[in-house]
Prior knowledge:
alpha+beta; Jelly Rolls; 2 domains; six-stranded antiparallel beta sheet; single chain
Amino acid sequence: MRIKSLLLAVTATAALFSGTAGASTELIINGNFESGDQGQINWGGHQLAGWTTTGYNFLFNSGNVDNGGTTGQYGNLQLWGPNNGASNGLGASPVGGNFVASDGAYAVGPLSQTVNGLTAGQQYNVSFYWAGAQQSGYSGETTEQWHVSLGNQTQSTVVKSNANHGFTGWQKETFTFTATGASEVLSFLAAGTPNGVPPFSLIDGVSMTSAVPEPETFAMLGLGLGLVGFAARRRKGKAA
C-alpha cells in the first residue's frame, strides 16, 4: 500500500503538469484568418480582422485559390494548382479554411498585428504554417521565404526553391523571441525571386504563446511534488 500511495502521488504530479503545461494564453487575434474578406487585404473594402498590411497580399481559401481566384487592384488573381492546369499538390493548409498569400517580389509589404499582454524579458514562441506558390498565368522557377519580426528582432525561414508552376507543400515553423515591452508589433514579410514571375509566400495558423509555463503551472507542479514528498515521508515513518 505504501508503494501504491507513492506511485499515485507521482502520477498525480505528472497529470497536473501535463494538464497545465499547454495552457499558455494565445496572444494572436484571428491567427487562422477565418474572420476576413476574400481578396486583396486592405483594398476595395476587404479587411482581415486583427491584421493590417500595405502590401500585395491576398486572403484565399482552398476552394478558390486555383479555381476562380479572388479580386485585387489589378483584377482576378489565382495561384497555380490542380484546378487550373498544374498538378503540383496545392491545397488546404494543415489548419484548413482561409490562408494569406503574399507577393514577395512586387509591392511587398508586411502583414502585421500589435500584440498586447507581453512581459518584458520573457520569451515567446511564434509558430505558423507556410508554403511557397506561384501566380497563375506566369512561368518560371521561383523562390519563397518569410521574414518574421517582433519589435526590432527578425528571424527568417529557409529559402524554398520552387519549380515552374510549382508548390512547395506546407510546413510548420516556430521562432522564439524575447519581448522588450508590454506591446510589440509582430509582422510577416514575404521575400521572393525573381521579379516578373510572381512568387507567393503562403501562411496560416499563426500562434504566439509564452515559451515557459505560466505561474499557475508552477503552483500546480509544486502541489504535486508536495504530495510525492508527503507519501515518501509517510513511508519512511512507518518503516521506522
